[in-house]
Amino acid sequence: MGCVNSEGQFSHWFGNIHLSGPCNRACYFCIGQHMQSLERLNNLGKWPLDGIDEFIAKCKAKNISEINLTGTNTDPLLFQNILPLRKYLEAKIPNLKLGLRTNGALAHVRTMEMAAFDKISLSIHSFDTFRYRKLMGSGYPPNIVNLIQEFPKADFKINIVIGPENIADRDIIESLNRIAETRIKKVNLREPYGQPHLGDPMKKWGCQPSGDIFGMPVYSYRGLQVCYWDVHFVEVESVNLYANGVVSETYPVTKGYDSAEGRVVPQPLWVKSGRQFQQWQ
Q: Which residues of the chain have pLDDT under 70?
């Protein structure tokens, strides 16, 4: 049952450092709107990060070497201390593989910081500017051809959050066709948290899975590995560091952040806010 009833029964595969602060996009499905106690925090200029040593210790205890820099309500390329973070993690975590989860808006500006990452997951929910802005609030889709040429050593992946805007007219398929023309080989189609459940679009469009990853179906499409990723059922755990210094050891990022002890907050106590909907009817 993955994230719905996550109790540490799955293997820990990665660690996440979750930043908090202002953002350069305004995705209506942003998971940060369900983590209200973090909304007032801004650690984009902070170093060292609160809780970083406890986070590293728990990652090492789980034999985790992959660490991802992400955000609860912001984009991690806005973090001002990426290079010191990389150096600090390298000195303490053997065989470090540092990943970035970003919207890519600052990728061409913060080139030294981009080069510090081994893995880069770009959140591009549509390559159509109108749909992109409907989903992400503002801006333009980044040019992925230029990005992968500028950073040839990075292992790129595309994250597409599923929404009515990109399901319409099979816009997701148009995105996959564009990605297939590049060297990028991995795409995650992510079910949004706190929005109406939309289901696996590849299955709805008649595609048959070629396998699975962490209990999630994987499809082969024009040389791409396309994974439908539902945070409620994926069979994985992670170690998480939040902007308030709390460290949790369960994958659900909306649990475990709201306590000095890192305890799991029971679902009935979750704060309802923003455009949240009942996920399962």
A: 1-8, 259-281
